[in-house]
Amino acid sequence: MKIEELFDELQDMVHEAKVMPFMGGKILLEPERILDLLEEIHDNMPLEVQQAKSIVHERNQILAEAKREGEDIIRNAEERRKNLIKQSDIVHQATLQANEIIADSKQKTTDMRRAANDYVENLMKHIDDSITEHLNELRKTRASIKQQSPRT
Asked: Which of 53, 34, 41 is nearest to 4 (CA)?
């Protein structure tokens, strides 16, 4: 029999079944005959239905694999993003630290120049004072010698 005929027979069994009184419309069927019909339907299912089941199963497997791969891609992208952020933070921190070192170095250079200039200025003032003092002594000595020598 064809599947359509088997379904028709199953439908006829339901329509022709006796309604049980006081059971709210429930009917009485022969379970063995229904099971036989269902088995026959199953055995006579067209190849296309079995192929469709196989295709659906394969589709589900492909979708599951695609989902796993998609999740892996997302997870890897998220890890890469985190690493890039960390690297960016490291570069930012290094730049800040480098700028701080440069500013500190400039300040120390300025301070050292100022200290060197102050030292040289003090040294030159001391030498100037010493030379001035020696020059004054020299002039006094010269004047003294000039006064002591006979004039010609």
From this structure: 41
Query: What are residue 28's DSSP bridge partners?
Result: 18
Q: Is 48 helix (H, G, I), strand (E, B) or coil?
A: helix
Separation of first and last alpha carbons in the chain: 167
- Give the confidence band of 139 by pLDDT, cuts at 50, 70, 90: very high
pLDDT tens digits, 22-42: 777 788 788 898 888 888 887
- Residue 35 in domain: yes
Residue 18 lies inside a defined structural domain of this protein: yes
Q: What would the DSSP string read from start to end of 3-43?
A: HHHHHHHHHHHHHHSEEPTTTTS-EE--HHHHHHHHHHHHH
In a domain, 66, yes or no: no
Q: What total number of domains does the chain contain?
A: 1
What type of residue is 42?
A: H
Whole-structure pTM value: 0.39
**Alpha-carbon distances, residue 60 vs 52, 53, 65, 112 (angstroms):** 12, 11, 9, 77
